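FIELD: query
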Amino acid sequence: MGTANTFDVGTERSERAPLAEVLALLLQTPGSVIDTAPSYGSAQGVTGDLLRDANARGKVFLATKISTSAGSSAQAQWAQSLRDLHSDTVDLLQVHNLIDWRDNLRYARQLKEQGKTRYVGITHYREDAHDALAQIVRSERLDFVQLNYSLAERNAERTLLPLCQERGVAVLVNRPFQDGRLFRAVKDRPLPPWAGEIDCASWGQIFLKFIVSHTAVTAAIPATAKPRNMQDNLGAGLGHMPDARQRERIAALLAA
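FIELD: result
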């Protein structure tokens, strides 16, 4: 689960109640991932509050980011992240959108050595950054890369995903629905008759299974504030996954 935009809310119960329900649904699946960032408005703090209220910090793989310039700004932001998340540690600390990536990655590694984070990584959300991400994967020892990949944005398949797999780097996928573009592309279209072969009951599940069935992908992090959408997203982790032939059938369907 991602938190960008969707968890950027105030303190009113009416704003947070649906998000608490979204989180409760996520917690039904052991080993679930929550990805947030200090640059997502109030989302990081809301995430921390809801995890605290549910006594659920130890039930999720929690990822956040350094999203400011290196040095004192990064140190101050990290301290604030721990306060927001009501936690002494995170599972994954990422350099957001390659901001001062050399120095910030060095700082993240220091925190890893101190036991403050289990893993470190880098992120970006645009295809024009994939070459830079690939160069860093080649030159640095990373635990994770977060990148954009979907049926509408398949550039990562060319170099970056195979490279991560070769180097043993875990992959988180953002923008799995390309900010809703994929749903607009199939609006009013019925599911293909073969959707049941891969245990898909919705277009969202087809889109997500296309992503997570790639052998280099560790997890996708769709963001939602709606419990019914969260329940649907979770269904993409169940049942049969598309094989190579079925993946190409999905891609061809959207292209048509």
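FIELD: remark
The longest strand covers residues 60-66.
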